[in-house]
Amino acid sequence: MSAGGGYDEIPYSKYPYPHTHPDRLATVATLMGLSPAPPARARVLELGGGAGGNVIPLAYAAPELHAVCVDLSARAIADGRRTAEALGLANVELIEADLRDLRGGELGPFDYVVAHGVYSWVPGDVRDALLEVIRAHLAPDGVAFVSYNALPGGYLRRMLRDMGLWHARAERTPLGRAGTAQELFRFLAEHRVADDLYGRLLERELRRVVARPLPSLVHDDLADDMQAFWFADVAAHAARHDLGFLGEAELAELEADRLAPGVEEAVRELSGGAGIAFEQYSDFLLGRKFRQTLLCRAERRVDSELDPARMRALRFLSSAVPEAAPLSGLLPRAVAALEAVWPRTLGFEELDAQLDAGSGALAAALLDGFRAGVVEPHVDPPRWADRPGERPRASALARLQAADAIDLTTLRHENVRMEEPAARRLLRLLDGTRDRAQISAELAAGGDGVALGPGDLERNLEALAQLALLHA
Amino acid sequence: MTDLYETVRYTGFPFPQTHPERLALLARMHGLDPAPPERCRVLDVGCADGVNLLGMAAGAPGLEAVGIDSAAGPLERGRALASEAGLLNVRLEALDLRDAGELGAFDYVIVHGLYAWVADDVRDALMALLARCLTAHGVAFVSYNAQPGGHLRTMLREMALMHADPEAPLDGARELYELLAPWATDRADAYGRVLDHELERLRRLKAPALLHDDLGALYRPVWLRDFAAHATAHGLQYLCEAELSELEADRHPEGADAMLDRLAAGDRVRWEQYADFLAGRVFRQTLLCRAEAPAEPGELVRALRRGEAVLPELPSHHVTAPGERPEASPLTRAMAREGADLVSLEHEYVRLDDPFGRYLLNLLDGTRDRAALVDALVAAVGRDLGMTAGERPITDGERLRPQIAGGLEQNLQTLAGLGLLRA
To answer: b/e string for B33-64 if b means 16 or more Cβ within 10 A?
Structure first.
């Protein structure tokens, strides 16, 4: 954000970020005892949202939602406006502005405010402005999402960043620096001293940066202002701006990033219960390097713990293969039942009736599943089709993206890469006007003439439904 | 920092890697013609109680040692020890290095454990001091916490200071280490292992070292390239590392050296910097010399790197078999009268907990043969030397004469083995 020029020079990714989705924010807020606004009709503000790659899909998928995207880069805003226009969206605004000019709440109140990839990558005054802007725009029951690089893990990233930048010191352009830095990362990956501690640490960190696209290296790992923070310091910073800690958008980044049973109790004892101290001590033990923290107005009373009983108000989705993670108790059965109906969700009552194991036990199991990252709770029912209809209609956004790119946004607000040109051609035909015979005929008539038999076509349409690319 | 040294007793140690003999050897191997170690001027900046200099001065009467430190207490102890040991070639001065004017020319300057723990103005003053006082072929030894490994230690440091009272962090820090340790051991991933490794190191550190090294007011690890650039800005240059074994081949995995050669393109600082990337270096002991000195790795250094030579040996100063009238140095004897911390003739730290051994050591002034030693020990029992039989103190040494005489040779052998006896 600090370097508008830098952002104009290198296009940043236009990906959606599922953990910033208002439904996810509402889910955590609900579990913590707040009454968040219904996500599908909410007002959503994204700060530093680039070309709207994150809010345009929200606006597209929920016509009653109103989204505003603010960014410093004129080029990004212009790009985003073109996309919104092409989709005929009236419920999304893209505004070129400096955060420091929005401290008075100029844009009005919002139910959800998202700042993804801003906090750690701007100078101190902008970081202050960011929290001020969030507080000024946050509705009384509003939820804010702030992501940042966290310590202690940030030190490990910092190590690689310093090395990379020094190696690339002769390069004059950001992309040139990124390319040369990546060359060093490859060298280190190849030659790290096998099996010693530091070597293993390098391996863990290098895995991420050796293959990262150069523009993300420029904007993230190698960014001028990149700074990592201790969670406790971020929480204190938020408190100074009358913002309180609500929870995390993602409870566990990886399976390995969870405290082992027994340890959690010990850390809880050390920190006097859940809350900020607990989170901070957990980070000490886990080596956390990234956080997606949810904030609310400081005067909001929130529970200190996620309350399993509140699971009853939610719907659930799971695509986890139960064998992939060691699950225990009722959870494997719940995951299996959810997996069987993917990409449909099941309400708590439905699942309870199916498993018949007691609603208290189910609520606890589902919360465990959420913590372990194998169950995805939702507030709203899904808007995607679980199977292709008579005249299948794919997301107009995805169809637009498929015209000249391989990265597509699903209706679940995820990014999928579709490298096969024929697959994208099929997707583009699905505008809801064609039945299967017409689809087959037009596919075959295309330049590269793809002939699909009825069985193959059906399988491919079902695959698109599984990816949550088709409208109900 | 000054406060810390005043309140925490920081027992001085000899640092063999700073000894002029070692520095001279390395300098010669890298193209310089340094002053002979037995007749040179040595400056130790931040010398604490000066034990490091005392050890050097005791071994070479022609060596002139000057130590400066801003904390007066330890210096006082050092001066008392020097006078006890009859050392006339050591001067210890309470002086902030920022105020050090002309201290004269020095062939060897030692700055151990300072650079990474002070602010920029002190660092600048230090480099300026080196530039002022190093002789044409003089060598400076400067140690510091290095990057990238410093990031890992900073991580643990900040955790400890967050948990503890920053004004008096020792107890809180140790409490946190104990709390984290059992859980860190359970984690199999890379982060957990690093945590485990660092905690093990921190839990073993003694209070003064912990307070000074890891929990001090400033903790500023440095990249070698920045350190070298700082030296260059003051008319100095990188010479080599103080650790002899670093000159040997096989420090890196197969193929890495060739890549390092390519990356460094003939620049030795760059070569070392990339090597630090690979190894995760946490600490450096770098030798500097004047920018105009002809520093260049000689044939022996090149042969060592190819694995075609062995490391040269340093001269030895102690005897392995006690002579007819065994002799320890006056410094060793003075230290033995004070406590268990000793400096060997090889300039190494030795701890001798046994009071009987220390008493014997003090007797070894080169005038006594074995019979005289036995007599002196027997006479000391019950007076200078408390001995007990079971619970009861023994007052009559004669009762112990057979044991004392019988064990003498073994005891002398032990002292010789510790490098405490000279020819």
So the answer is: ebbebeebbbbbbbbbbbbbbbbbbbbbeebb
